[in-house]
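Session log. Operator J.P. requested a structure for one protein chain; no other inputs attached. Running the standard single-chain path with token output.
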Amino acid sequence: MTQQLAIEICKNAVWTALIVAAPMLITGLVIGIGVSILQSVTQIQEMTLTFIPKILGVVGITILVLPWIMNVILGFTGEMFTLASTVR
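Structure written below.
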């Protein structure tokens, strides 16, 4: 295995992890901003108010995109097995 190949594998692994985590992170961000705006408008300054909507949103989006996440991870795993079988 060359250094270039190892760097490529690491790059693909990090990129795959970012793509898989992106829907949950973006959902948490959008819900957090929405709740913050709502808190600013209504002047409710409760710190724990954001937790339940974020948890529900992240769990909901995870359930919705789980088949896509599995396909991305399986594709990456297949590429790694194919690469492992060709490298000596």
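Operator note: The mean pLDDT is 91.
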